Known about the structure:
The protein is of the alpha+beta class. It has helices spanning about 5-20, 25-40, 55-65, 65-70, 95-100, 110-115, 125-130, 145-150, and strands at about 55, 85-90, 120-125, 160-165, 170-175. The chain has one domain (about 5-175).
Amino acid sequence: MNEAKKSLIFLTEWVLEKSSFSDEVQKSLVKDYVLWKWTAGFDEETKFQGCRFWSKQSFEKWKATCRKFKSGKKSGKFSKGKTNGLRHDHVVPRAFIFNKLRNNSNGKISGILECLSFGCVLTHDEDERLNGNLKDTMPEGWKDVWDRYRVAFRDKGITIFEISWPDAKIIKIILDMPQNES
Length: 182
């Protein structure tokens, strides 16, 4: 684990266990700083480039719109402020993770962050499918971090790739749900 992640674990432990901050301030610091940094803020990473998981549609859109990628350099970034309709989703919602961290009584903050806090780049339309009943929670009886996607995309379908950086190469398919024809 890198030093930046160790620092975020220390910060989370301090905020939740030792600080006298209000619940609202704790929630803001953990959700809006720690969890964003954990998924999209180290070294050369951004919430897009460097993100480990991408939907097939978002990856194709990114490749088609990044000049550097099209020219063979494969390190294309969007212009500042332009995301070309892509979104960085927290596969397990930040509110859900925050509640797990706050209710954690056995000191397993690093384990919770390592297992539950990671992002996936989606198109705007794909992201909208997650913003209903599953915006801030996981499905009832969930067993796998991708179960929220399985529920949201059971009719429409989605494919999620794991990507290696900086070469933007597909390593493997993580989730492949075909569109329901009915």
